[in-house]
């Protein structure tokens, strides 16, 4: 790698200048952006140690430093953000994919638009510590809206927001507003999110001339701030434990159907044992578990069998 930082050295003017709008779509400035991205990766290594179990199994990733289809061929910023582990991300991706039109897939190829994110980033004007949910983050946004339909949940979110402290603002479709820290102030948020077209976010924005950004100590400020944002991420983001959309059953059924396809059998199939001690015995399939094991009823006896030992008759 051209640039590697074991820890975060601080941002300099060149890091902000790398995202001058005139440079967004040009590969000529990739090296500038690569260096800034490497600084954020160094920050990520620091945060992994500081956060430990507080990250809740989430993993750090960075956005791209060169124009690509996955950033609509322009690099206006670079983010270091926490995301779900790849297996969980892929599972959610399949559900999101079913609910996304072909037109939408073609028009929005940015992967960070699909899920709620928490992290730190930099652009031409400022650095930011953020929680963001795009309009196209279908599961996470709808899960948040569903939680806001319960007044007790609204009060809970108000408490989480109040804990963030001074400096944070709410962003909705690029319009900044004071951070709502009372339940009364949040009562219309669900309706506003229903009409959301771009980003919803909770952000602490620090202008490029803020001296704290040039110091390695900024890494500690991020480490102290992120846990509060992660609490709000967990409030909003869909998970099996935070399933306001009742999707856990859908995912379990999807996994069950996949197991059936792999085994080749379904409940009610009449089968015959083709090898082993029960060769020649006939029975009926009772169930196929999530690992593809087949339970067969032979008279009064129920037995789990490997699919390869059975033949449908």
Low-confidence stretches: none
Task: Tell me, briefly, the overall form.
Answer: elongated
Quickly count the helices.
10
What does the main sheet amount to?
Answer: 7 strands, antiparallel
Q: What distance separates the N and C termini?
A: 59 Å
* Architecture (CATH level 2) name of the largest domain: 2-Layer Sandwich
Record field, number of beta strands: 12
Strand pairing plus helix content: what structural class?
alpha+beta
Q: How many domains, as an integer?
A: 2
How does this structure look, described?
- The chain has helices at 13-17, 30-51, 86-98, 102-107, 138-147, 151-162, 183-186, 189-194, 218-236, 248-263; strands spanning 59-62, 77-83, 117-123, 126-134, 168-172, 175-178, 199-207, 270-273, 282-288, 294-298, 301-305, 310-312.
- The chain is α+β, with helices and mostly antiparallel strands and 313 residues long.
- A 7-stranded antiparallel beta sheet has the order 1-2-3-4-7-5-6. Strands 11-10-9-8-12 form a 5-stranded antiparallel beta sheet.
- The radius of gyration is 25 Å and the shape is elongated.
């Amino acid at each position: 790698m051209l640039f590697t930082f074991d820890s975060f050295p601080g941002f300099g003017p060149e890091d902000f200048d790398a995202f001058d709008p005139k440079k967004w779509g040009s590969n000529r400035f990739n090296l500038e952006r690569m260096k800034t991205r490497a600084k954020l990766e160094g920050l990520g290594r620091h945060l992994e140690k500081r956060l430990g179990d507080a990250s809740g199994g989430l993993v750090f990733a960075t956005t791209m430093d060169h124009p690509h289809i996955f950033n609509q061929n322009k690099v206006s910023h670079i983010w270091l953000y926490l995301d779900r582990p790849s297996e969980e991300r892929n599972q959610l991706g399949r559900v999101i994919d079913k609910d996304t039109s072909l037109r939408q897939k073609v028009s929005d190829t940015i992967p960070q638009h699909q899920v709620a994110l928490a992290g730190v980033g930099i652009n031409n004007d400022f650095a930011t510590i953020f929680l963001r949910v795009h309009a196209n983050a279908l599961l996470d946004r709808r899960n948040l809206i569903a939680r806001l339909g319960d007044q007790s949940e609204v009060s809970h979110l108000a408490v989480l927001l109040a804990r963030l402290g001074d400096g944070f603002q709410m962003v909705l479709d690029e319009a900044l507003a004071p951070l709502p820290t009372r339940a009364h102030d949040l009562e219309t948020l669900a309706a506003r999110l229903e009409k959301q077209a771009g980003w919803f976010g909770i952000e602490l924005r620090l202008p490029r001339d803020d001296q704290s950004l040039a110091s390695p100590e900024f890494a500690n400020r991020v480490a102290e701030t992120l846990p509060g944002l992660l609490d709000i991420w967990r409030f909003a983001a869909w998970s099996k434990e935070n399933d306001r959309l009742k999707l856990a059953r859908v995912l379990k059924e999807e996994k069950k159907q996949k197991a059936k396809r792999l085994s080749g059998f379904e409940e009610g199939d009449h089968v015959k044992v083709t090898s082993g001690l029960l060769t020649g015995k006939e029975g009926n399939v009772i169930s196929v578990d999530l690992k593809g094991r087949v339970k067969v009823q032979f008279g009064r006896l129920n037995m789990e069998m490997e699919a390869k030992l059975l033949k449908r008759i």
